[in-house]
Amino acid sequence: MPIELTGRCRVSGLREGAARDHGSTLRVWQHAGRESGAAAISLRVLELAPGRSPSLGGAACDEVLYVFEGAGALLFEGVSRPIGTDTGFYVPPGARYEIEASTPMTLVSSRCPDPGESAEAAATGAPPVVVRLDECISETTGDRWYSVLLDHHIGRSQVTQFVGGIPPGRAPDHYHEYEEVLCILQGRGRMWAGGRSTPIERGSCIYLPRRQMHCVENTGSTELRLLGVFYPSGSPAVRYYDGNGPTVDGVQRSE
Protein backbone atom coordinates (compact mmCIF):
# COMPACT_ATOMS: atom_id res chain seq x y z
CA MET A 1 0.00 0.00 0.00
CA PRO A 2 1.20 3.57 -0.67
CA ILE A 3 2.48 5.46 2.37
CA GLU A 4 0.48 8.59 3.17
CA LEU A 5 2.48 11.42 4.74
CA THR A 6 1.43 14.88 5.91
CA GLY A 7 -0.70 16.94 3.53
CA ARG A 8 -1.56 14.13 1.09
CA CYS A 9 2.07 13.54 0.16
CA ARG A 10 2.18 9.92 -1.00
CA VAL A 11 5.03 7.44 -1.56
CA SER A 12 4.67 4.17 -3.47
CA GLY A 13 6.87 1.55 -5.11
CA LEU A 14 7.59 1.52 -8.83
CA ARG A 15 5.26 -1.41 -9.51
CA GLU A 16 3.09 -1.21 -6.41
CA GLY A 17 -0.61 -1.88 -6.74
CA ALA A 18 -2.64 -3.30 -9.58
CA ALA A 19 -1.41 -2.79 -13.12
CA ARG A 20 -3.53 -2.42 -16.24
CA ASP A 21 -2.54 -4.66 -19.13
CA HIS A 22 -2.68 -3.24 -22.65
CA GLY A 23 -2.20 -6.16 -24.98
CA SER A 24 0.74 -8.49 -24.43
CA THR A 25 3.51 -5.87 -24.42
CA LEU A 26 2.39 -3.06 -22.08
CA ARG A 27 1.54 -2.81 -18.37
CA VAL A 28 0.70 0.49 -16.65
CA TRP A 29 0.72 1.46 -12.96
CA GLN A 30 -1.02 4.71 -11.98
CA HIS A 31 0.53 6.34 -8.88
CA ALA A 32 -0.91 9.87 -9.00
CA GLY A 33 -3.66 11.65 -10.89
CA ARG A 34 -6.99 13.40 -10.55
CA GLU A 35 -8.68 10.23 -9.32
CA SER A 36 -6.25 10.10 -6.36
CA GLY A 37 -6.55 13.78 -5.42
CA ALA A 38 -3.96 15.53 -7.60
CA ALA A 39 -5.07 18.88 -8.96
CA ALA A 40 -3.34 18.70 -12.33
CA ILE A 41 -0.38 16.30 -12.51
CA SER A 42 -0.20 12.54 -12.99
CA LEU A 43 2.48 9.91 -12.46
CA ARG A 44 2.39 6.58 -14.31
CA VAL A 45 4.90 3.77 -14.74
CA LEU A 46 4.89 1.97 -18.09
CA GLU A 47 6.52 -1.46 -18.46
CA LEU A 48 7.16 -2.62 -22.02
CA ALA A 49 8.09 -6.11 -23.13
CA PRO A 50 10.38 -6.46 -26.17
CA GLY A 51 8.48 -5.75 -29.37
CA ARG A 52 6.07 -3.10 -30.67
CA SER A 53 3.84 -1.31 -28.16
CA PRO A 54 0.20 -0.44 -28.75
CA SER A 55 -0.49 3.08 -30.00
CA LEU A 56 0.26 5.54 -27.17
CA GLY A 57 -0.42 9.23 -26.52
CA GLY A 58 -3.35 11.11 -28.00
CA ALA A 59 -4.35 12.76 -24.71
CA ALA A 60 -5.55 16.36 -24.42
CA CYS A 61 -2.47 17.47 -22.49
CA ASP A 62 1.32 17.67 -22.47
CA GLU A 63 3.06 14.39 -21.66
CA VAL A 64 6.68 13.94 -20.63
CA LEU A 65 8.30 10.53 -20.26
CA TYR A 66 11.65 9.33 -18.95
CA VAL A 67 13.33 6.00 -19.64
CA PHE A 68 14.03 4.51 -16.22
CA GLU A 69 15.69 1.47 -17.79
CA GLY A 70 15.90 -0.37 -21.09
CA ALA A 71 16.37 0.60 -24.73
CA GLY A 72 14.34 0.87 -27.90
CA ALA A 73 13.02 3.35 -30.44
CA LEU A 74 10.30 6.00 -30.42
CA LEU A 75 8.18 5.74 -33.57
CA PHE A 76 6.22 8.74 -34.88
CA GLU A 77 4.76 9.04 -38.39
CA GLY A 78 7.34 6.77 -39.95
CA VAL A 79 10.34 8.33 -38.15
CA SER A 80 12.34 6.31 -35.60
CA ARG A 81 14.33 7.91 -32.77
CA PRO A 82 16.55 5.83 -30.45
CA ILE A 83 15.68 6.07 -26.75
CA GLY A 84 17.33 4.43 -23.76
CA THR A 85 18.07 4.79 -20.06
CA ASP A 86 18.25 8.47 -19.01
CA THR A 87 16.37 9.73 -22.08
CA GLY A 88 13.42 12.10 -21.72
CA PHE A 89 10.85 12.94 -24.36
CA TYR A 90 7.95 15.35 -24.73
CA VAL A 91 4.71 14.40 -26.49
CA PRO A 92 2.47 17.30 -27.61
CA PRO A 93 -1.32 17.15 -27.09
CA GLY A 94 -3.00 14.71 -29.43
CA ALA A 95 0.20 13.21 -30.82
CA ARG A 96 0.20 9.42 -31.10
CA TYR A 97 3.34 7.29 -31.08
CA GLU A 98 4.62 3.76 -30.55
CA ILE A 99 7.70 2.31 -28.91
CA GLU A 100 9.70 -0.55 -30.36
CA ALA A 101 11.43 -2.06 -27.32
CA SER A 102 14.65 -3.93 -28.07
CA THR A 103 14.97 -4.89 -24.38
CA PRO A 104 12.43 -4.78 -21.54
CA MET A 105 11.77 -1.09 -20.82
CA THR A 106 10.41 0.88 -17.87
CA LEU A 107 9.27 4.47 -18.40
CA VAL A 108 7.98 7.11 -16.00
CA SER A 109 5.22 9.29 -17.47
CA SER A 110 3.59 12.52 -16.31
CA ARG A 111 0.63 14.16 -18.03
CA CYS A 112 -0.15 17.81 -17.30
CA PRO A 113 -2.82 18.85 -16.82
CA ASP A 114 -3.94 15.31 -16.17
CA PRO A 115 -6.84 14.67 -18.58
CA GLY A 116 -8.35 11.94 -16.42
CA GLU A 117 -10.90 10.16 -18.60
CA SER A 118 -11.36 13.05 -21.04
CA ALA A 119 -11.58 12.54 -24.78
CA GLU A 120 -8.55 12.54 -27.02
CA ALA A 121 -7.26 15.82 -28.45
CA ALA A 122 -6.68 16.82 -32.04
CA ALA A 123 -2.99 16.47 -32.89
CA THR A 124 -0.99 19.69 -33.11
CA GLY A 125 1.15 18.35 -35.93
CA ALA A 126 4.31 18.79 -33.85
CA PRO A 127 6.51 15.71 -33.36
CA PRO A 128 7.76 14.46 -29.97
CA VAL A 129 11.02 16.00 -28.72
CA VAL A 130 13.74 13.61 -27.47
CA VAL A 131 16.51 14.73 -25.07
CA ARG A 132 19.28 12.68 -23.43
CA LEU A 133 20.44 13.56 -19.93
CA ASP A 134 24.08 13.66 -21.02
CA GLU A 135 23.18 16.37 -23.55
CA CYS A 136 21.83 18.71 -20.88
CA ILE A 137 23.60 21.46 -18.95
CA SER A 138 24.16 20.71 -15.27
CA GLU A 139 23.48 23.60 -12.87
CA THR A 140 24.26 23.84 -9.17
CA THR A 141 22.15 25.16 -6.31
CA GLY A 142 23.94 25.03 -2.97
CA ASP A 143 25.47 21.58 -2.65
CA ARG A 144 23.05 20.02 -5.13
CA TRP A 145 22.90 19.88 -8.93
CA TYR A 146 20.13 19.55 -11.47
CA SER A 147 19.75 19.25 -15.24
CA VAL A 148 16.55 20.31 -16.99
CA LEU A 149 15.63 18.00 -19.86
CA LEU A 150 12.25 19.43 -20.86
CA ASP A 151 10.42 22.65 -19.99
CA HIS A 152 8.55 25.61 -21.53
CA HIS A 153 11.49 26.27 -23.86
CA ILE A 154 10.65 22.99 -25.66
CA GLY A 155 7.73 23.49 -28.03
CA ARG A 156 4.56 24.41 -26.14
CA SER A 157 5.31 22.35 -23.04
CA GLN A 158 3.80 23.62 -19.79
CA VAL A 159 5.68 21.10 -17.65
CA THR A 160 9.30 20.82 -16.42
CA GLN A 161 11.19 17.52 -16.30
CA PHE A 162 14.59 17.44 -14.59
CA VAL A 163 17.12 15.12 -12.95
CA GLY A 164 18.82 16.18 -9.72
CA GLY A 165 21.57 14.93 -7.43
CA ILE A 166 21.48 15.18 -3.61
CA PRO A 167 24.59 14.58 -1.45
CA PRO A 168 24.40 12.73 1.89
CA GLY A 169 22.50 14.72 4.51
CA ARG A 170 19.31 16.66 4.89
CA ALA A 171 18.59 20.18 3.65
CA PRO A 172 15.99 22.50 5.28
CA ASP A 173 12.33 21.78 4.66
CA HIS A 174 10.82 23.89 1.88
CA TYR A 175 7.84 24.06 -0.45
CA HIS A 176 7.03 24.96 -4.06
CA GLU A 177 4.25 26.83 -5.80
CA TYR A 178 3.55 23.87 -8.06
CA GLU A 179 2.51 20.23 -7.90
CA GLU A 180 5.41 17.82 -8.27
CA VAL A 181 6.08 14.12 -8.73
CA LEU A 182 9.43 12.40 -8.11
CA CYS A 183 10.97 9.04 -8.93
CA ILE A 184 14.17 7.94 -7.21
CA LEU A 185 16.75 6.84 -9.79
CA GLN A 186 19.53 5.77 -7.44
CA GLY A 187 20.46 5.84 -3.76
CA ARG A 188 18.55 5.59 -0.50
CA GLY A 189 17.02 8.15 1.81
CA ARG A 190 13.87 9.35 3.54
CA MET A 191 11.00 11.40 2.21
CA TRP A 192 9.87 14.00 4.74
CA ALA A 193 6.52 15.82 4.65
CA GLY A 194 5.85 17.90 7.73
CA GLY A 195 6.93 15.83 10.73
CA ARG A 196 6.42 12.44 9.07
CA SER A 197 8.80 10.45 6.89
CA THR A 198 9.24 7.11 5.15
CA PRO A 199 12.23 5.32 3.57
CA ILE A 200 12.81 5.77 -0.17
CA GLU A 201 15.06 3.94 -2.63
CA ARG A 202 15.51 3.34 -6.34
CA GLY A 203 12.04 3.12 -7.87
CA SER A 204 10.18 5.00 -5.11
CA CYS A 205 7.46 7.21 -6.64
CA ILE A 206 6.38 10.36 -4.79
CA TYR A 207 3.49 12.80 -5.18
CA LEU A 208 3.81 16.28 -3.62
CA PRO A 209 0.86 18.68 -3.51
CA ARG A 210 1.42 22.39 -4.10
CA ARG A 211 2.82 24.26 -1.05
CA GLN A 212 3.50 21.09 0.95
CA MET A 213 6.54 21.47 3.23
CA HIS A 214 8.93 18.62 2.46
CA CYS A 215 12.51 17.44 2.16
CA VAL A 216 14.30 14.56 0.46
CA GLU A 217 16.99 13.33 2.86
CA ASN A 218 19.93 11.27 1.58
CA THR A 219 20.72 8.72 4.30
CA GLY A 220 23.37 6.91 2.27
CA SER A 221 27.07 7.55 1.73
CA THR A 222 26.80 8.28 -2.01
CA GLU A 223 24.69 10.58 -4.17
CA LEU A 224 20.91 10.18 -4.28
CA ARG A 225 19.61 10.91 -7.77
CA LEU A 226 16.00 11.64 -8.63
CA LEU A 227 13.72 12.44 -11.54
CA GLY A 228 11.40 15.38 -10.92
CA VAL A 229 8.42 16.65 -12.91
CA PHE A 230 6.35 19.68 -11.98
CA TYR A 231 3.49 21.77 -13.33
CA PRO A 232 3.31 24.58 -14.26
CA SER A 233 6.78 24.88 -15.76
CA GLY A 234 9.56 26.81 -14.00
CA SER A 235 12.99 26.43 -12.42
CA PRO A 236 13.88 23.54 -10.06
CA ALA A 237 16.12 25.98 -8.18
CA VAL A 238 13.20 28.05 -6.83
CA ARG A 239 12.03 27.03 -3.36
CA TYR A 240 10.22 28.66 -0.46
CA TYR A 241 10.95 28.40 3.25
CA ASP A 242 8.35 28.87 5.96
CA GLY A 243 7.78 32.57 6.54
CA ASN A 244 10.20 33.72 3.83
CA GLY A 245 10.08 34.66 0.18
CA PRO A 246 11.38 32.47 -2.63
CA THR A 247 15.06 31.65 -2.94
CA VAL A 248 16.93 30.89 -6.15
CA ASP A 249 20.28 29.11 -5.83
CA GLY A 250 20.26 29.94 -2.14
CA VAL A 251 19.69 33.70 -2.66
CA GLN A 252 16.42 35.14 -1.40
CA ARG A 253 14.40 37.07 -3.98
CA SER A 254 11.45 39.39 -3.63
CA GLU A 255 8.00 38.13 -4.52
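The above is record 1. Record 2 follows with the same two-line structure.
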Amino acid sequence: MDEARAFSFLRTNRREAKPRSLGVTEIRGPYYTVAGRRYLEDLLEGFGEYVDSLKFAGGSFTLMPREALTGIIDLCHSHDVKVSTGGFIEYVLAQGEDAVDRYLKECRSLGFDIVELSTGFITTPVEDVVRLTERVRREGLLAKPEVGIQFGAGGATSVDQLEAEGTSDPGRAIEIARRCLEAGAHMVMIEAEGITENVRSWRTDVVARIISALGTDRVMFEAADPEVFAWYVKNYGPEVNLFVDHSQIVQLECLRSGIWGTASLWGRVLTYRPHREPA
Protein backbone atom coordinates (compact mmCIF):
# COMPACT_ATOMS: atom_id res chain seq x y z
CA MET A 1 0.00 0.00 0.00
CA ASP A 2 1.29 3.47 -0.92
CA GLU A 3 0.83 5.34 2.36
CA ALA A 4 1.98 8.64 0.80
CA ARG A 5 -1.08 8.72 -1.43
CA ALA A 6 -4.46 9.71 -0.04
CA PHE A 7 -7.06 6.90 -0.16
CA SER A 8 -4.25 4.42 -0.76
CA PHE A 9 -6.54 1.54 0.28
CA LEU A 10 -8.34 1.92 -3.06
CA ARG A 11 -6.93 -0.10 -5.92
CA THR A 12 -5.35 1.70 -8.88
CA ASN A 13 -3.28 0.36 -11.75
CA ARG A 14 0.26 -0.02 -10.48
CA ARG A 15 2.72 2.26 -12.28
CA GLU A 16 6.48 2.17 -12.58
CA ALA A 17 8.24 4.69 -10.39
CA LYS A 18 10.31 7.39 -12.08
CA PRO A 19 12.47 7.22 -14.09
CA ARG A 20 9.92 5.22 -16.05
CA SER A 21 10.53 3.20 -19.20
CA LEU A 22 6.81 2.70 -19.95
CA GLY A 23 3.80 4.96 -19.61
CA VAL A 24 5.97 8.07 -19.96
CA THR A 25 4.04 11.35 -19.98
CA GLU A 26 5.44 14.57 -21.41
CA ILE A 27 3.50 17.79 -20.90
CA ARG A 28 3.59 20.99 -22.93
CA GLY A 29 5.09 24.03 -21.24
CA PRO A 30 4.51 27.68 -22.21
CA TYR A 31 3.06 28.26 -25.67
CA TYR A 32 -0.72 28.25 -26.16
CA THR A 33 -1.07 29.35 -22.54
CA VAL A 34 1.53 30.67 -20.14
CA ALA A 35 2.88 28.04 -17.74
CA GLY A 36 5.27 29.85 -15.45
CA ARG A 37 7.09 28.75 -12.33
CA ARG A 38 4.28 29.42 -9.85
CA TYR A 39 1.72 27.58 -11.96
CA LEU A 40 4.11 24.64 -12.39
CA GLU A 41 4.86 24.59 -8.66
CA ASP A 42 1.19 23.90 -7.99
CA LEU A 43 0.96 21.35 -10.79
CA LEU A 44 4.06 19.42 -9.74
CA GLU A 45 3.29 19.59 -6.02
CA GLY A 46 0.06 17.70 -6.61
CA PHE A 47 0.79 15.62 -9.69
CA GLY A 48 4.54 15.65 -10.26
CA GLU A 49 4.74 11.89 -9.78
CA TYR A 50 2.87 11.47 -13.07
CA VAL A 51 4.93 13.93 -15.13
CA ASP A 52 8.13 12.61 -16.70
CA SER A 53 9.15 15.55 -18.85
CA LEU A 54 8.13 19.09 -19.73
CA LYS A 55 8.46 20.26 -23.33
CA PHE A 56 8.75 23.89 -24.35
CA ALA A 57 7.03 24.67 -27.66
CA GLY A 58 7.63 27.14 -30.46
CA GLY A 59 10.97 28.25 -29.05
CA SER A 60 9.16 30.00 -26.18
CA PHE A 61 12.23 29.62 -23.96
CA THR A 62 14.13 32.08 -26.19
CA LEU A 63 11.69 34.84 -25.16
CA MET A 64 12.21 34.37 -21.43
CA PRO A 65 14.67 36.03 -19.07
CA ARG A 66 17.45 33.57 -18.27
CA GLU A 67 16.59 33.58 -14.56
CA ALA A 68 12.93 32.74 -15.20
CA LEU A 69 13.90 29.95 -17.59
CA THR A 70 16.45 28.34 -15.27
CA GLY A 71 13.92 28.67 -12.43
CA ILE A 72 11.47 26.49 -14.37
CA ILE A 73 14.19 24.00 -15.31
CA ASP A 74 15.41 23.75 -11.70
CA LEU A 75 11.85 23.32 -10.44
CA CYS A 76 11.27 20.47 -12.88
CA HIS A 77 14.51 18.77 -11.86
CA SER A 78 13.53 18.99 -8.19
CA HIS A 79 10.50 16.84 -9.08
CA ASP A 80 12.51 14.39 -11.25
CA VAL A 81 11.01 15.90 -14.41
CA LYS A 82 13.24 16.20 -17.47
CA VAL A 83 13.05 19.32 -19.64
CA SER A 84 12.86 19.28 -23.45
CA THR A 85 13.52 22.05 -25.95
CA GLY A 86 10.66 21.04 -28.20
CA GLY A 87 11.21 21.19 -31.94
CA PHE A 88 13.01 24.55 -32.19
CA ILE A 89 16.02 23.02 -33.97
CA GLU A 90 14.34 23.74 -37.33
CA TYR A 91 14.71 27.47 -36.74
CA VAL A 92 18.32 27.04 -35.63
CA LEU A 93 19.31 24.86 -38.59
CA ALA A 94 18.37 27.66 -40.98
CA GLN A 95 21.12 29.78 -39.36
CA GLY A 96 23.99 27.38 -40.06
CA GLU A 97 26.16 24.78 -38.38
CA ASP A 98 27.83 27.22 -35.96
CA ALA A 99 24.40 28.25 -34.68
CA VAL A 100 23.54 24.59 -34.06
CA ASP A 101 26.72 24.09 -32.01
CA ARG A 102 26.08 27.22 -29.95
CA TYR A 103 22.44 26.24 -29.47
CA LEU A 104 23.32 22.81 -28.12
CA LYS A 105 25.98 24.21 -25.78
CA GLU A 106 23.51 26.79 -24.47
CA CYS A 107 20.90 24.05 -23.94
CA ARG A 108 23.38 22.09 -21.87
CA SER A 109 24.54 25.12 -19.85
CA LEU A 110 20.96 26.09 -19.01
CA GLY A 111 20.13 22.59 -17.79
CA PHE A 112 17.97 21.18 -20.59
CA ASP A 113 17.92 17.38 -20.68
CA ILE A 114 16.27 16.60 -24.04
CA VAL A 115 16.72 18.17 -27.46
CA GLU A 116 13.86 17.40 -29.82
CA LEU A 117 14.89 17.13 -33.47
CA SER A 118 11.88 18.03 -35.57
CA THR A 119 11.85 18.60 -39.32
CA GLY A 120 8.16 19.23 -40.02
CA PHE A 121 8.74 22.52 -41.84
CA ILE A 122 11.97 21.62 -43.65
CA THR A 123 13.29 18.86 -45.89
CA THR A 124 16.35 17.20 -44.38
CA PRO A 125 18.20 14.07 -45.59
CA VAL A 126 17.90 11.07 -43.31
CA GLU A 127 21.66 11.01 -42.81
CA ASP A 128 21.57 14.58 -41.50
CA VAL A 129 18.91 13.72 -38.91
CA VAL A 130 21.13 10.82 -37.80
CA ARG A 131 24.12 13.19 -37.60
CA LEU A 132 22.10 15.59 -35.48
CA THR A 133 21.14 12.72 -33.18
CA GLU A 134 24.80 11.83 -32.74
CA ARG A 135 25.78 15.50 -32.24
CA VAL A 136 23.19 15.93 -29.48
CA ARG A 137 24.52 12.83 -27.74
CA ARG A 138 28.09 14.11 -27.92
CA GLU A 139 26.94 17.24 -26.14
CA GLY A 140 25.72 15.05 -23.27
CA LEU A 141 22.03 15.58 -24.02
CA LEU A 142 19.21 13.19 -24.87
CA ALA A 143 18.22 13.25 -28.55
CA LYS A 144 14.52 12.95 -29.35
CA PRO A 145 13.90 12.99 -33.12
CA GLU A 146 10.37 13.78 -34.20
CA VAL A 147 9.03 12.01 -37.27
CA GLY A 148 5.71 12.07 -39.06
CA ILE A 149 3.96 11.83 -42.39
CA GLN A 150 2.78 15.43 -42.79
CA PHE A 151 4.95 18.09 -44.42
CA GLY A 152 4.37 21.52 -42.89
CA ALA A 153 3.43 20.03 -39.50
CA GLY A 154 4.09 21.83 -36.27
CA GLY A 155 2.46 25.21 -36.58
CA ALA A 156 -1.28 24.61 -36.17
CA THR A 157 -1.74 24.86 -39.94
CA SER A 158 -5.28 24.47 -41.28
CA VAL A 159 -6.56 21.17 -42.65
CA ASP A 160 -6.90 22.60 -46.15
CA GLN A 161 -3.31 23.87 -46.18
CA LEU A 162 -1.94 20.57 -44.91
CA GLU A 163 -3.95 18.61 -47.46
CA ALA A 164 -2.42 20.77 -50.19
CA GLU A 165 1.05 19.89 -48.90
CA GLY A 166 0.29 16.17 -48.94
CA THR A 167 1.60 13.34 -46.77
CA SER A 168 4.59 11.05 -47.11
CA ASP A 169 4.92 7.28 -46.95
CA PRO A 170 4.81 6.08 -43.31
CA GLY A 171 7.65 3.75 -44.23
CA ARG A 172 10.00 6.75 -44.50
CA ALA A 173 9.08 7.94 -41.00
CA ILE A 174 9.67 4.44 -39.65
CA GLU A 175 13.06 4.23 -41.36
CA ILE A 176 14.17 7.59 -39.96
CA ALA A 177 13.03 6.55 -36.49
CA ARG A 178 14.83 3.22 -36.71
CA ARG A 179 18.06 4.82 -37.91
CA CYS A 180 17.97 7.41 -35.15
CA LEU A 181 17.30 4.81 -32.46
CA GLU A 182 20.26 2.81 -33.75
CA ALA A 183 22.33 5.99 -33.48
CA GLY A 184 21.43 6.29 -29.81
CA ALA A 185 18.28 8.42 -29.74
CA HIS A 186 16.62 8.45 -26.33
CA MET A 187 13.12 8.18 -27.79
CA VAL A 188 11.25 9.11 -30.97
CA MET A 189 8.31 11.51 -31.01
CA ILE A 190 5.53 10.80 -33.52
CA GLU A 191 4.03 14.00 -34.93
CA ALA A 192 0.23 14.05 -34.61
CA GLU A 193 -0.53 16.22 -37.63
CA GLY A 194 -1.49 14.10 -40.58
CA ILE A 195 -2.39 11.21 -38.24
CA THR A 196 -4.82 12.38 -35.53
CA GLU A 197 -4.52 16.16 -35.71
CA ASN A 198 -5.74 18.53 -38.45
CA VAL A 199 -7.10 15.66 -40.53
CA ARG A 200 -10.63 14.85 -41.67
CA SER A 201 -10.26 11.24 -40.50
CA TRP A 202 -7.65 9.67 -38.26
CA ARG A 203 -4.89 7.58 -39.87
CA THR A 204 -4.96 4.82 -37.28
CA ASP A 205 -3.35 2.54 -39.86
CA VAL A 206 -0.19 4.65 -39.60
CA VAL A 207 -0.10 4.24 -35.82
CA ALA A 208 -0.46 0.48 -36.21
CA ARG A 209 2.40 0.34 -38.72
CA ILE A 210 4.68 2.37 -36.47
CA ILE A 211 3.99 0.24 -33.40
CA SER A 212 4.33 -2.97 -35.40
CA ALA A 213 7.75 -1.85 -36.65
CA LEU A 214 9.13 -0.08 -33.57
CA GLY A 215 7.15 -1.25 -30.54
CA THR A 216 5.93 1.20 -27.90
CA ASP A 217 8.74 1.46 -25.37
CA ARG A 218 10.91 4.00 -27.28
CA VAL A 219 8.15 5.79 -29.17
CA MET A 220 6.01 8.68 -27.88
CA PHE A 221 2.84 9.86 -29.58
CA GLU A 222 1.62 13.44 -29.64
CA ALA A 223 -1.90 13.32 -28.24
CA ALA A 224 -2.80 16.79 -27.02
CA ASP A 225 -6.52 16.17 -27.33
CA PRO A 226 -8.54 14.12 -24.81
CA GLU A 227 -10.24 12.05 -27.51
CA VAL A 228 -6.83 11.19 -28.98
CA PHE A 229 -5.08 10.13 -25.78
CA ALA A 230 -8.16 8.18 -24.71
CA TRP A 231 -7.97 6.32 -28.03
CA TYR A 232 -4.31 5.47 -27.47
CA VAL A 233 -4.97 4.17 -23.95
CA LYS A 234 -7.97 2.19 -25.16
CA ASN A 235 -6.10 0.56 -28.03
CA TYR A 236 -2.53 0.28 -26.73
CA GLY A 237 -2.96 0.22 -22.95
CA PRO A 238 -2.16 2.57 -20.09
CA GLU A 239 1.62 2.28 -20.56
CA VAL A 240 1.79 3.89 -24.00
CA ASN A 241 4.07 6.96 -24.03
CA LEU A 242 2.13 10.19 -24.65
CA PHE A 243 2.64 13.93 -25.04
CA VAL A 244 -0.28 16.05 -23.79
CA ASP A 245 -0.95 19.64 -22.79
CA HIS A 246 -0.11 20.60 -19.20
CA SER A 247 -3.84 21.14 -18.57
CA GLN A 248 -4.55 17.47 -19.36
CA ILE A 249 -2.18 15.64 -17.00
CA VAL A 250 -4.87 14.82 -14.43
CA GLN A 251 -7.37 13.60 -17.02
CA LEU A 252 -4.74 11.37 -18.65
CA GLU A 253 -3.53 9.93 -15.35
CA CYS A 254 -7.10 9.11 -14.32
CA LEU A 255 -7.28 6.97 -17.47
CA ARG A 256 -3.85 5.38 -16.92
CA SER A 257 -4.62 4.52 -13.30
CA GLY A 258 -8.05 3.14 -14.18
CA ILE A 259 -9.96 5.26 -11.66
CA TRP A 260 -12.05 7.26 -14.15
CA GLY A 261 -12.77 7.61 -17.86
CA THR A 262 -15.24 8.05 -20.63
CA ALA A 263 -18.21 5.74 -21.08
CA SER A 264 -16.17 3.38 -23.26
CA LEU A 265 -13.22 3.25 -20.83
CA TRP A 266 -14.66 3.58 -17.33
CA GLY A 267 -13.57 0.55 -15.30
CA ARG A 268 -11.99 -1.15 -18.34
CA VAL A 269 -8.36 0.02 -18.20
CA LEU A 270 -6.63 -2.66 -16.14
CA THR A 271 -3.11 -3.97 -15.63
CA TYR A 272 -1.70 -7.17 -14.15
CA ARG A 273 1.41 -6.49 -12.10
CA PRO A 274 1.62 -8.56 -8.90
CA HIS A 275 3.60 -7.22 -5.95
CA ARG A 276 5.66 -10.41 -6.05
CA GLU A 277 6.30 -12.88 -8.79
CA PRO A 278 5.28 -16.45 -7.81
CA ALA A 279 8.13 -18.66 -6.62
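Residues 97-110 form the longest helix (14 residues).
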